[in-house]
Each structure stands twice: as C-alpha cells, then as structure tokens.
Amino acid sequence: xxxxxxxxxxxxxxxxxxxxxxxxxxxxxxxxxxxxxxxxxxxxxxxxxxxxxxxxxxxxxxxxxxxxxxxxxxxxxxxxxxxxxxxxxxxxxxxxxxxxxxxxxxxxxxxxxxxxxxxxxxxxxxxxxxxxxxxxxxxxxxxxxxxxxxxxxxxxxxxxxxxxxxxxxxxxxxxxxxxxxxxxxxxxxxxxxxxxxxxxxxxxxxxxxxxxxxxxxxxxxxxxxxxxxxxxxxxxxxxxxxxxxxxxxxxxxxxxxxxxxxxxxxxxxxxxxxxxxxxxxxxxxxxxxxxxxxxxxxxxxxxxxxxxxxxxxxxxxxxxxxxxxxxxxxxxxxxxxxxxxxxxxxxxxxxxxxxxxxxxxxxxxxxxxxxxxxxxxxxxxxxxxxxxxxxxxxxxxxxxxxxxxxxxxxxxxxxxxxxxxxxxxxxxxxxxxxxxxxxxxxxxxxxxxxxxxxxxxxxxxxxxxxxxxxx
Length: 471
Known about the structure:
The protein is α/β, with parallel strands linked by helices. The protein folds into three domains: 3-138, no CATH class; 144-249, NAD(P)-binding Rossmann-like Domain (Rossmann fold); 272-466, no CATH class. The chain contains 14 helices and twelve strands. It has a six-stranded mixed beta sheet, sandwiched between helices. The two termini are 35 Å apart.
C-alpha cells in the first residue's frame, strides 16, 4: 500500500468517524440524556441536513488546518491538537449557520457532544494507525528507501536519527562517503556504497529510491549543488541537512539579541535540571517496583544456587560516566571460571566492534540462559541505581577493554550515566551492531526527555518478556 493510498484511507476513515461521532452525540443527547433531560424527542432523521453540512464544513477545516498532511516525526499530541482545532472550527461554523437559519431541531448541547465524540474517535483512530504503521516500519514494510550522502558528524547524526526513529517511515539502504571523514567501511548494518561521486551509478542501481539526504560538510557547497542537479535529473527528491558548525540541530540554540539573530551551542548531554528529574524518576520507579522485584530476585537467587556451584551475584568492573570505573552487579549466568575461557572463545564472537557476544555460549548455565534471555540477570543493578552509579535508562556501561578500542565518536556515549536498559535494548538488543548501538546511545543523549525514559521503560517490558535479540 502506497502512502497515497494510506492518506486516502485516512480521509475516508476520518469522515466515517465524523458521521459515527455525530450519531453517537445524538444517542448521548436524546437517548441517554446526559447533563440535561430533553423536553422534546427528535428523530435522528431531522438532523441529517445538519450532518451533511457538518461533513462539508469539516472537509474544509481539515484541509485548511492540514489534518491530512503527513508530518514525519510529529507527536500524537500535536496531531490531536490540530484535529481538535479543525473539529472545533467546523462545529463553530455549524453553530453560527444554525444561529441565523434556526433549523428545526436545534440543540447546542448535541453540538458539544458531537465535538467531543468526533475528536475522541478520530484521535484514537490516529493513535491506532500510528501503532500499526510503527510496527510495519520497524519491519521495513512501507518505509521509504533513502540514501544518505555524508559520513561525518552530520551524516552520523542523521543516520542515528533514522535508526532511533523507525516511526519516521525511512529505511536507509546505505550511505556514500564524503571522502573526508575517517569512516569508509560502514555504520552498523548501513553499508558504505561508495563515494559521493558514485551517486549516478547508485541511483541507477536503486531505481525505487524515495529520497536522498545530503549531509555533507558546509564547505562542500559546489559538490552539494552538483548532487542536487544529479538527483533532479534522475527524478529523485533530495533534502539537504544543514551543517551548522558540524552540530546537529538539537544542539544549536537560536537567540535574538535586539533584533540580531545569533547562534549558540547548547550543553552536550543531560543538564543538571534534567539529571534531577531523571534521578527522581529512577527513585520513584525503584520504590514502586521494589517489593515485586525483591520477590523475583529471591526466586532467581534460589534457582542459581540450586543449579550450579558458585556465588549468586557476579561483580564486574565497568566504565561509567566520563570514564569513571565502578562495580556493576548482575546475577551470575555463567560458570564460575567463565572469564578465563573468554579468550579461547573469541574466534566465535558474533558481534562486531570491541564487544563479545555469542548466541550459544557454552559457559552459560541452564538458569543463566533463561535469565539472560529475559534480561532478569540485570535486576541486581537496582542497587547500582540506588547508589547513583547507574540509571534505569541510559547507555550500557562498557568494559575498560572495550573502551580502549573505541573510536573518538564512540566515546560520546560515555558522557552520561549508564543504564540498565536503553534505546538500544528496545531497538534490537544483541541483534544490533556496535556502531548502531553507539548511534542509538548518542541519539538518546542528544534528544533526552523524561517522556523518552518512560517510553523506553514501558517498551522494555515486552522486549524482555519475548527475549527479542537477547543472548
């Protein structure tokens, strides 16, 4: 199904719900008689003329407010506000016309219920559409195929946004190297398809490409113009990502100094006020879920003790915020001398970059295999959260030996406190490559909000239950 068909289906469903909402308003007013009893019963057929006029008015207001225009990245609340405004305008126009025409019957209270019913029904329908499209986009279905040109900081910023926000409806098929940056191999599973001068050949190989994103350094003005001409010749839409001091837009602060526009740089990472809010969220969630968590931890501890000899808790030295080391606690999921066998198993490593992942690790115990798949081995890290060494949500704290192999841009993920879960976990967990994991962590740091932490915590539950990408 194309986006044009999705839009047509949205328009038809909206207008259907307008009529359903109006009929529901009639039931509320004349059948259930909420708020105020009716004096005269009116048949629904007497309202058909007003319903037809309302349909015409709402088509006009929906078009004016651009309710049916696709806005990638728009939050549901913002979409709902536009719907509410358009419906209010339509109902308001209907009320004005009714005031002068004085139709029989006429009920202002029914107009109120019609407004409420239509907004709720369309709002819920849009929310359901978002959820369904989000699931399809995550699987690459209906997502627009896009090509990124540029592999510097601007290009990586764009790619991590595409990875972190599948709901935008984009799927990067690869990128073209800018010839200046150090990365010319690939960014996770997003392959390097060549240099930006290879654009004509790339467009010929991908005739179904939807969009080209140009994320080249600002000094490459001439090359950007040439790329735009090539895209125009091939009939492929192109969008230029502005390079503002090699920073992503969310780190650029716009100010007005007595009429003179100025650009500033926001503090990288999570500021102090946000840290306080994040800390409060951690403590509230831990206190609320503490008793159930202790019960589960007690059962797991007993199972580990009965399953294999050795300690119940495994302590691992990890690197925290700004490179500070700390002791991280986990339930032991492997045999006691597992660390000594790691070197011999490195040839079976299924992860790229400076991390070790093995799907069928022979060092795993029976209980360990289960708790690792459900991420229950991480529960003792609640103690790290209470001590302020970790947060519930954040980048995964790495080993010191892993940090030693980091590229400079990888180290950006160490600028905030680590977490038990994170954007990486709800986006694929062990199925992600190391570069993708870093890109998602950096996106999280640069776009942090309290609502993002809450959303990640809620999404972690089903991901842990189904064990997707965990080993």
